[in-house]
Write a structure and sequence with these properties.
- This protein has 294 residues and is α/β, with parallel strands linked by helices.
- It contains eight helices and 15 strands.
- It has two domains: 3-33 and 49-90, Alpha-Beta Plaits (2-Layer Sandwich), CATH 3.30.70; 141-293, Vaccinia Virus protein VP39 (Rossmann fold).
- The longest helix has 14 residues, at 234-247.
- Strands 8, 9, 10, 11, 12, 13, 14 and 15 form an eight-stranded mixed beta sheet that branches. It has a four-stranded antiparallel beta sheet with strand order 2-3-1-4, with helices on one face.
- The termini are far apart.
- Strand 8, helix 5 and strand 9 form a beta-alpha-beta unit.
- Helix 7 runs parallel beside helix 8 (264-271).
Length: 294
């Protein structure tokens, strides 16, 4: 089977990574765009190369003009991305990904690991473990925005809570919340592949009985969440502000991610009428904003 590869050189490689995933890339990697002799960073860290090329792998029937246009529309105006494409032969991308990723810790006792990787001794007997292998939906814990949300969840008292994961991707945030003590969770996404991945990952982690997975327009009319997480991108988060407010109970906790530092003001303006927001948290050039429903 052949695939299409879209390689993007940009000043914002982490942003490109998320946009390629949102556009349907089934694998995303980063590499040196020049020939700089430095080591590749660990998962979740900022690339060390002065010029980084981010590469997305798409099914052979994909029209790459669409993700290219998404990148042009979404990247900051001071960026001048360069695009190149080619067809490549099939490979076992999941196996290659697993070779390079070890178990990762978020907030102490929360761990995410591929099925093929053991927990290190440092995990301890009280470790909360999410088992997740790469698939066709965004969210494995290696991206800074996902890591920021996982760390936030690990600090929350979720016992008895009802959580909403809006833009769930792989379902990693909802699954982690359930393992951390949430009573129930609802995972929603506009991508049908994400819904399939979230259901499958929930079954593998033994929490499928407490997780409802559905498209946004299929959310129960009376749903109200105690905790809402949305790891998407700035523009859809701005548009979703009234919707998320309507889905939140009074004093519900909120975490928003997938944001760049210069997007904080637009998010704060959109959510200020219904939420009080704390100071943002920054990791590897990405922001997480959290707060409470008024």
């Amino acid at each position: 089977m052949a695939w299409k590869e879209l390689a993007v050189t940009s000043r914002y490689p982490e942003f490109v990574e998320e946009l390629l995933s949102a556009a349907g890339a089934q694998a995303v990697t980063q590499r040196d765009a020049a020939d700089t002799p430095v080591l590749e960073p660990a998962p979740g860290q900022t690339p060390l190369w002065p010029t980084t090329c981010t590469v997305g792998l798409f099914p052979a029937d994909t029209d790459l003009a669409d993700p290219c246009q998404l990148l042009r529309d979404s990247l900051p105006s001071d960026d001048r991305p360069h695009f190149s494409t080619r067809e490549i032969l099939d490979a076992d991308w999941a196996h290659l990904w697993q070779q390079g990723v070890e178990a990762m810790s978020f907030g102490g006792r929360l761990w995410v690991r591929p099925a093929s990787k053991p927990l290190p001794p440092a995990a301890g007997d009280d470790a909360v473990v999410v088992e997740l292998d790469p698939g066709l939906a965004f969210g494995t814990g290696t991206h800074p925005s996902t890591a920021l949300c996982l760390r936030w969840l690990a600090t929350q008292d979720l016992a008895g809570c009802h959580l909403l994961d809006y833009g769930c991707g792989s379902g990693i945030l909802a699954i982690a919340a359930l393992k951390l003590g949430a009573a129930t969770a609802c995972a929603t996404d506009i991508d049908p592949q994400a819904l399939l991945a979230a259901r499958d990952n929930a079954r593998r982690n033994g929490v499928d009985a407490r997780l409802q997975v559905c498209a946004p327009d299929a959310l129960p009319a009376d749903f109200r969440g105690d905790v809402i997480v949305a790891n998407i991108l700035a523009s859809p988060l701005v548009a979703l502000a009234p919707r998320l407010a309507a889905l939140a109970r009074p004093a519900a906790r909120l975490a928003l991610a997938g944001l760049l530092p210069d997007q904080e003001a637009m998010i704060r303006a959109a959510y200020a009428p219904e939420f009080t927001l704390d100071a943002p948290q920054l990791a590897d050039g990405w922001l997480r904003m959290s707060g409470r429903r008024r």
